[in-house]
Write a structure and sequence with these properties.
alpha+beta; about 45% helix; 2 domains; signal; Protein Transport Mog1p, Chain A; about 190 residues
């Protein structure tokens, strides 16, 4: 009995050692970069690393899409659109956006992250005087601090949220009520961003 158990363990160990490990495009690209760097081919190494970064950003963008809410009753939504831009363009960054419509009313939600340009926007939230200088007002919406430009008379405006010092979330509405704007803001999964 012990001999059979020992043989099973040995066979399992050998199968594990000789079974090729599944690699994905990211790890393959990083491996290519490492090999190119070892050969002194810096251009190929940079290209492979940039490709790996782009794939990781695309995966992160897809994950961010999951944080956007489902359409409210009576509303429809298009598929979320995401853009992952490498550091070579505008400093890089990830943007995810989804648009919701009901008749001629519309709300769009955008999440931006990993962009150096966000630092300037984050400063607005740190200094209330800057935040209100463009006509916005500070409010709490969906349990988050927001700069609001919503105007009931025009039935539109936006809420801007700075989340965890790395995400800028904008909820923009046209021909909508403040309650509809707030309901969509409530549907965003801010907890996962924190």
């Amino acid at each position: 009995m012990l001999k059979r158990q020992l043989m099973t363990v040995v066979l399992f160990s050998l199968a594990t050692v000789f079974t090729p490990l599944h690699a994905d495009d990211v790890t393959d690209s990083i491996q290519e970069a490492s090999e190119a760097y070892a050969k002194g081919d810096n251009a190929k190494a940079i290209e492979s690393l940039n490709y790996a970064v782009q794939l990781i950003q695309q995966a992160k963008a897809k994950n961010l899409e999951q944080l956007l809410p489902q359409p409210l009753s009576g509303w429809t939504a298009n598929a979320a659109e995401s853009t992952a831009v490498g550091a070579a363009m505008f400093g890089g960054g990830i943007t995810v956006e989804k648009r919701y419509t009901k008749g001629d009313s519309s709300i769009s939600i955008q999440i931006v992250t990993d962009s150096p340009m966000l630092q300037g926007m984050m400063a607005l939230f740190a200094n209330p005087m800057f935040a209100t200088s463009s006509g916005g007002k500070l409010e709490k919406v969906a349990g988050q601090k927001a700069i609001s430009t919503y105007d009931a008379a025009n039935q539109g405006g936006d809420y801007q949220f700075a989340v965890a010092n790395q995400y800028m979330v904008t909820v923009k509405g046209e021909k909508v009520s403040a309650d509809e704007m707030a309901a969509y803001a409530e549907g965003i999964d801010f907890k996962k961003m924190e």
